[in-house]
Amino acid sequence: MTDIERLRHSTAHVLATAILKIWPDAQFAAGPPVENGFYYDVELEHRISPDDFEKIEAEMKKEVKANHPFERVNLSRSDALSMAERGALGALGERPAPSKFKLDIIQNIPDGEEISIYRNGEFTDLCAGPHVMRTGNIGAFKLTHVASAYYKGDEKNPQLQRIYGTAFKNKTQMDEYFAMLEEAKKRDHRKLGKELEIFVIDDDVGPGLPLWLPRGGAIIEELEKLAKETEFAAGYQRVRSPHIAREVLYRKSGHLPYYAESMFPPMELHETGDRKPETGSDTAQSAIRDPQSAVSRYYLKAMNCPHHHKLFAAVPHSYRDLPLRFAEYGTCYRYEQSGELFGLMRVRSMQMNDAHLYMTPDQFETEFNAVNEMYLNYFKLFGIDKYLMRFSTHDPAKLGQKFVNEPELWKQTEEMTRNVLKRSGINYVEVPNEAAFYGPKIDVQVWSVIGREFTIATNQVDFAQPRSFDLVYKDRDNTEKTPLCIHRAPLGTHERFIGFLIEHYAGNFPLWLAPEQVRVLPIGDEPKLLDYSRAILKELRAHQVRAEIDESTDKINGKIQRAEQMKVHTMLVIGNRDLEASAISVRVHGKGNLGAKPRNEVIANLLKSIKERES
Ligand SMILES: [Zn+2]
Ligand SMILES: [Zn+2]
User: What CATH class is the domain 518-611?
Assistant: First the structure.
């Protein structure tokens, strides 16, 4: 138990104390710490509602103020059982009814295990601990909500009330936590995504299949432009592949059967005529074939790798061609359980900033470093200060099940990756048993400004797939060798990355990324003024700036308000004085009025900011 968990669990005891002072016949079950707080399950005739919180918290405050010590006493099983029978566990003293849940818990404690109780003031509870020293150590606490839960999670058992709360070392920390929650609610990408018309999820299209509105499409285009420029400069080549493929491809790649649970079920197709027999497919599982019509199975692609491997194999390669870097914003489909779906963060269709790099072993370090550099440059561009690289390795006990059965190759590639990480001085943690099935991987976790954690990018080493696809290059000595492969996706998927960016920027995208970069707002509707405004719009669009004009008859304040609401980055307010001086009055979302400047200067500044992707 961490220090904060110990504090929060101790607060659960104080909560139970307070509830008993108000409702003496309350029966308590379990009260563990949970993420961000604690709960206690209680059986009670009175339905506790948030209206009761003030009263309960007042009792809790008394307990904290009294600064009772938490005292531990070890008991024999028979003493513990007798206390429970006398109703004295999870209680302020003996009661007519037994402490039935505590009784059950004791009966389930294995023989030989220590049984202990904890006391704070009048309250005694069955508990293994640990706790803080005294109730006065609880600096700040708050009850948050009530839910219902079956005892031991089994619906055959009685239904209990689960009272949730949280506690902190001091009030400042608690205030910060609740302020962060408020901010997180405001920034929630599902809420902003709707308000700012970025994406929708439509039930007829299907759960987990986001549709991108034009404003979302604009962000996607910008991210792809960024990726394409960056990758082009780094020597990547762009390829394209279809969204579906035959079963045999995924058998070769090992996605079937290793990854089958995350794939959509196959489509069955009756193919006739010139179709070649499917080598390597699982014929036993395929449907019955007749000579005229054979059934093939096609799968939606869950990953782009198998397609890229086929592209590598399509042309013979010598060591001189390597490294070869294939990039594609490939759309993949994964079957996530419907309970797991969450806005843009957990989806079933995703557009991935994917690439596969094929290299000789001695090129590995340079390539791997270059990929890591690319990650770091992106983080700088987006102002992501907090990130962690998680280096996931295999578990030798699970070779052949969770991990490809190549013990030597696992050792070698993990060692190589570890060395590169150490030498480059990047902050990383090593996590066993979480590698991809074909090799060690690095997940990059980032934290948004509101402290939410996202895994947005992965960088994986692969020694298995190039082998199963018989990928080879001709080495210096004229022998055929298998290349190493790196899978990488620094910008993750559009879905998750844009979800992250919405929350990171609170919808206030920098100019280069803003869905609507500029809105021209004429003051009034005089023809000369409108002509001038339209000419500005035309000039901006000619430079590929995402600009709109508001020619409605509304007052200028109404026009500004509407633009601010949609978080349009720059508003160009055009009045007669601007017209006469060939000027533009500039207003920036979140910054207010910046005053009038010559038209050429304003446009040049906008173009420069976009080109340089200023934050
Ligand atoms: Zn306890
Ligand atoms: Zn891949």
Answer: alpha beta
